[in-house]
Every structure is written in C-alpha cells, then in structure tokens.
Amino acid sequence: MADNNEWEKDRSGANNNQEDIEVALADDAEGVDDRRDIQELIEELTAEEQGEYRTGLRVMPLIPLRGLAVFPYMVLHFDIGREKSVSALEKAMVRDQIVFLAVQKDAETDLPTKEDLYEVGCVVKIKQMLKLPGDSIRVLVEGVSRGVIDEIVQEIPFFKVIVRQIDETDYDALPSGIEALMRTVLDNFESYIEVSGKLPQDMFASVASIEQPGRLADVITTHLDVRIESKQRVLEAFDPEERLNILNEILSKEIEILKIEQDIKEKVHSKINKSQKEYYLREQLRTIQEELGEDEQIGDEIKNWLDELEKLNVSEKIHKKIEKEIKRLSKIQPSSAEGGVIRTYVEWVFQLPWNKYSAGGIDIKGACDILDEDHYGLEKVKERIIEYLSVMELVETMKAPIICLVGPPGVGKTSIAKSIARAVGREFVRMSLGGVRDEAEIRGHRRTYIGAIPGRVINGMKEAGSMDPVFLFDEVDKIGADFRGDPASALLEVLDPEQNKEFTDHYLEFPFDLSKVLFITTANTLDTIPRPLLDRMEVIEVPGYTEEEKVQIAERYLVPKQMKEHGIQDEKIRMSEGAIRDIINYYTRESGVRGLEREIAGVFRKAARRVVEDRSEKKKTNISVRGGNIEKYLGKKRFRYDVIEAEQLVGTTTGLAWTIVGGTTLSIETTRIPGTGQLALTGQLGDVMKESARAGVSYIRSIADRLGIRKDFYKTDDMHIHIPEGATPKDGPSAGVTMCTAMISCLTGIPARQDVAMTGEITLRGTILPVGGIREKVLAAHRAGIRKVLLPKQNERDIDDIPLTVRRKMEFVLIGHADDALRHVLARMPKKRAAAGTGKAAAKKMAARQ
C-alpha cells in the first residue's frame, strides 16, 4: 500500500527528538522506567516524523472493538457509539487519521480496561466518517500494519497507547515449504467456499492471485465466518509461515464442522417431510373419528373448561380473554406445538385461586400468644405488628400494608414473617430476591418465548391457593439489575396498594388482584433499596439482641432444638448459663443468634459422639458443658472480649460505630509529627469520615488560643489519625467528636480516658449534632465494659430504646458542644495559652502548665 510505504522511510529524516527517544529506550533496558519520557518525546514529533521513526514506537488513540477483528490491507466500515471511542476518533481526525484497533475479550463489557483488551491489534488509517442518528458514527478504515500495545498511557477521556508496529515480511522468492503451505491453504479455502455456500465462487480467483503468504493468510481470514478468538490467533501470528499453519488448522476444522452441519440439515429436512406426511394422515384420521363420533375426549375437556369459566366470578374482560383461548384450542390440532402452549395457558388460569380467601378473622390475643411463643424480646416490633393486625380486623376493606423488616442478619426477620402468617391464619409464601436480576422473575415471560411461564408472584399465589396469603420478599436490599431489566422497578407495581389491584403478568396478559395480599419484605440495610420502592413500605426496625436476650433465646429455644435435632434429648447432658455466655462473648460476633445456634450445634455434635461411644461401652452418659470446659468442645477462643480498662492515654479516645451486623467500639489514635501541616487519615476511612476529621481540625484552629495550642501548629506539625482494623471499611459523620477530642488530647498533651465512649457529628463551631444507631452503639459499649457514654443532646429520645437491663448499668451524658466532651474525657481541661510579651514569670507559669 502507498500509505504503508510512507511509514517506512529512512531513519535519517527524523529530527533530534528521535535520538532522545533512543536514549530513553537504552535507559529503559538498564532498569530505568522512562516510558512517560518516551511518550512525551514521541508526542513532540510531527505525524510525518513519527511515521519515519524506525523503532516502530508510536503514540496513537485506541478504539476497542466488539466482535470484529481488522487486518492489514483490509478496508471496511463499522459503527461506534461509546463516548471514549468517539473521543479517540475525534483526536485521530485532528491529528493524522491514524488509530489503533484492539479487540475486546468479552463483547459484553461496556467499559473495558487494559485487561479486557487483546494486546495485538491493527494500526489503521481513517478514510471516511459519517455521523448517524442516535450519536453514533460510521467509520471507513484501511488496515496498515499489525501492532502491539507497549503501554497504555491514558484511559480518560479515551485510550491513548504506545504501539510497537510490526512490519510485514515480504519474500522476493518463496521458500518451497511456504509455497506448498500456500497451495494447501488455497485448496482448503476452495473447499470451504463450496461447503459453506456463503461466499461467491469468483472470490477464490481473486484470493489465489495474492503472492505474499502473510497477506494471503490475512485476506482469507477476513472472509471466514469463525469465532473472534480464532481470527485473533491469526492476527497475533507475526511470522507468515506460522500464520499459514494456524489458518490451515482453522480451515480444516471449519470444513469438518460444515460437513457435519450439512448432514444434520439433510436429516432434519427428511424428518420435516415425514412430519408433514404424519400431519396429513392425522387430519384424515381426525375426520374419520369425527364421522364415527369418537373424538369426544377433547370436546368434553373444552366443555368442562367452559362450564368452569362460567362459575368464575371474574370481570367481563378476563372472561372474554379466557373464553377466546379455549375456543382457539378447539379449532387447532391438540398435538400441535401451539395447541400445547394454549393448553398450558388455560390450565394455569384455572389453577389460580380466583375469589378464594382465608376463613375467619384475626384473633388479636391469639396472635400475641403466637408471637411471644415464637420470639423472645422484640417488644416494639411485636407491638407494631399487632397494631397493624388490629386495624386490619376493624377495617375489612383496608388495603393491606407493605411491611419492611430491617435489621442485622440472624435477628429473626424471616421467622417473624412466618409467625405473622400463623397468627392471622393465612398461607405463607416466600420469595428470595437475593441476586435476582431478571424482570421476568417478577412479571413472567410473554407466551412468544418457548417454555414461557408466569412470574414467581403469580406462581406463589397458585401455591398459596388463596387471594390473601402472607407473601414474603426476602433480602429485598440485595436485588440486582442488568440488560434483562430491573426487578426493583417491576416490584413497584406489586408493592403499591394503589396499583397491585390490577397487577398484570406478561404470561397471563390480564390483571390479577393482589390488593388483599399481606406483603412483607426483609432487608439488612435501607441504603441499597431504591427510593421509590422504599417509599411504598412501612419500615419496622428489628434491632440486635443484647447478651441477656441471647442467653434467654439460647436456653428457651436453641438448646432444646439442637438437642432434639441431634437425638440426645433423653441423655443427661446439661449446658450451663456460663457456657452460653462464653459462646456469645468468645465464639460469636453478631447482632442475631444464627452464629450462636451454629456453635451450640457444634457442642452437641461432640456430645453425640460421646453418647455413641458410651453406649458401645455400656456406660451411662453424664455431660456437663460449663464455661470452664467450653474450649474442649469448641476449641480456642476466637474473639477477644474487649473490656476497656480505665486507663488514660494521650491522643487516643474511644468512639462508637454502627455496622450492618450491629454496633462496635472504635479506638481512634492520633499523633503529631514535625512537618508542613499535612493531615493523614488511615484505616480505610470513607469520604464522610475524612471530612469530619478536617472539620475537627478547622474547629481546633479556631480555638487554638483557648486550648493552649500554638496558632501555627497546622503549619509546623503533621497530624496522623488512624483507626485500627484497617481491613474493615469505615464511614459516616458520627466519629467527628471522637476524632476532634483525640486531636486536642494529642496537641495539648493531656491524657484522655479510655473507659468513656462517645459519638456525635461535629460542626465547624463545635456543635454536636445527632446521629443514628444509638441502641446498637450503646450495646457495643456495654459489651466492652464501658459504663459511661457521651451522646448528642438531640439523641436523648433514643435512650428509651435501650433495654432497661443495660440502661441501669450505664451512665449517659448528653453533650451539645465539643467542650462538654472535653470535660468528661480529658484528665483536665486545657488552659489558655499565655500571650506574647507577658514576661518571664508568665512564660515559666506556662511551662509549668505544660
């Protein structure tokens, strides 16, 4: 090609920048990474000088391709629409119309990275571009040469890469081995054209005239209907002989597959002819049966369906729809594919619980007894549920509420939903939404799809057998979305009392009444639930259990249950309260009791083994599991029971945090280092937490004189704030007052009490704002042995939510300003720094204070 010849000019025409590039390359070989320098030097070259550069290194934009491989000498057009690809195209048009095309490994990746691209691609020249409707562009390009990505130097706003161009090997006289290989490839290509029937016969003549082996392999590969991975193998073969061998292998395999496909098509064609013959004979047989009156079975079935339809109390629109489908079935061959689809549809319709409701009303006292029987504690949760049930009993026409139970894992959200169903005497249906990404899971598939069925909502109604079951959507916060639709959006119609009276499944194609269904959803957090969906639900928080509640649950429910499941309820085995407390404190870290039940099961597994061994030796079993011997059953203690000592440390304070599995304590450490006023924040902190720390620094600067801190501390000292357990992400504003207090302790040198925990957001004026999760945070402080907690004044109302047994052991201090926290945490209050020029006496006095 003419353009390709221009790229291979002699190196002598390059300017001095090219010599600098070679020096950078030499340094690179000695271990010095000068890739950025190479890029900058190459960028300074003109387009013509870049083409003259003999090392083949060249900086150019990159466009990722999906399902398309481009070869040298190939002229083709393709459409691009992704923003990064359009930007790369515009950059190339402004410069020299040269761009690098690389194939994506996965065509479904919308935002590819370096790992998603093949390193070997094609350098092309843009010949023409045409803007199409919809912000896409059609580009006509001509392949120039192969290229290898040396380095990706830019990814935003488009890919920019350093490419090493690969020159094609041309032969003046072909070696006999390569010539023989070319003939073999041409023979196979001719066979491929004949077997596939997709390429014109005259194409072989044009391809056979190519004399160079590398170009022959490239041209043939472009015309093959093979997977992109196979074409990429040919593209990555730089040696012409190797390229021909790979192509020959691909052609041989494709010819074999095409011959097998041809055989299959011939067999299918013969079967179709046979099916047509059978259809003709069956039609004759059906006519004979009708004449003899023997075709009564199908007619009776259709008659029964029509009679059953008349008994259904449905709207006229639904009645006509079902009647139309039944009559269609009577007019077509029952054994046909369409007949099977219609039959399945009609059967589904009559299996739905039309106008069937649960008998009887709601026994409020009985509901209370059932909830108390199934769950210990959770008094506020039970109270709100009973309130809902009471209103439903008084107002028969009330639309059922959508209840969302939110709480940590293992606190009994799913079992509460089952208890509600038992309390109201309704059927219970559960649907797990964790990982659901297909909208059809909710709305069903249209009948145009093979094997279509209704969605899981309608399927659940069929299983319930009534129009008013308790329907649980479990893990609603873990619902996903992809190219198949957004299930959360489909749930909007299901969970909206104003819309679910006429919920339309894609399979049924008529509205179905869900307004009498008591929908319950569960979630671990509200943050990931879409706002429109959350707006349709009544949120009930299911808090974590205290240690006392866990002990009661274990003694009343978990221990008897596990003894029964392990078949040792009649043996003399006793688990003491001390053993249960040790399991809670040293073997589990959770807000619920799922892990506690698992550990208790582990104890009884070992006890079961002891029982079996004693029976084989005809011994009596007498096992006592106590706190002193619990390690015998569960091994070494896995967790440390953090009882914080009443010590005082400079620059270290104790904070409180909320996590998805409950509350926890945070030890915030601060130190000062001579520097330039930098603030370092470590421990995998989120953006909000970092902003809280900066707000604390600004507040300290504003009152430095009053605290006895040098005004220029932010210029002469670096501050480093670290929160241990760096592998755990932390975020939120509630540690603001804790970090501020730790920094003041560090800057003043006054020790801080470690047995006082605090929480609250701090402003630039030192005001303490309210935060959430007070119950869980206080329970965490109680577990850690802390008995004094500082809370924002506006969180006073949340103290009532803390269990009474915990409140009696704790001292709560309400703070409205950072100064209030300093009084309770620091060993002494900071004193105002002496003003300059007050004399030697003042200086000595100040030194004595410090």
Distance between the termini: 83 Å
Helix content: 40-55%
Radius of gyration: 38 Å
Shape: globular
Q: Are there runs of 5+ residues with pLDDT below 50, and where?
A: 1-37, 45-54, 836-843, 845-850
Q: How much beta, percentage-wise?
A: 15-25%
Q: How many DSSP E strands? A: 26
Indicate the mean pLDDT. Answer: 81
**Main structural class:** alpha/beta
Q: Could you give a short account of the major beta sheet? A: 7 strands, mixed
Layout: helices, strands, pairs:
Blueprint: H1 2-6, H2 16-29, H3 35-44, H4 47-52, E1 57-65, E2 75-80, H5 83-94, E3 98-103, E4 120-132, E5 136-154, E6 159-166, H6 176-196, H7 203-208, H8 213-222, H9 228-235, H10 240-292, H11 296-311, H12 316-331, H13 337-351, H14 364-374, H15 379-394, E7 403-406, H16 413-424, E8 428-432, H17 440-443, H18 456-464, E9 470-474, H19 487-494, E10 503-504, E11 511-512, E12 518-523, H20 531-534, E13 538-541, H21 547-565, E14 572-575, H22 577-586, H23 594-616, E15 622-625, H24 630-634, E16 648-649, E17 652-659, E18 662-674, E19 679-682, H25 687-702, H26 704-707, H27 713-716, E20 717-722, H28 736-748, E21 752-753, E22 756-758, E23 761-762, E24 768-769, H29 774-783, E25 788-792, H30 804-807, E26 811-815, H31 818-825, H32 840-849
Parallel strand pairs: 1-3, 7-12, 7-13, 8-9, 9-12, 14-15, 17-22, 19-20, 22-25, 25-26
Antiparallel strand pairs: 1-6, 2-5, 3-4, 4-5, 5-6, 10-11, 16-21, 17-18, 18-20, 23-24
Helix pairs in contact: 2-3, 6-8, 6-10, 8-10, 9-10, 11-12, 12-13, 14-15, 14-16, 21-22, 21-23, 25-28
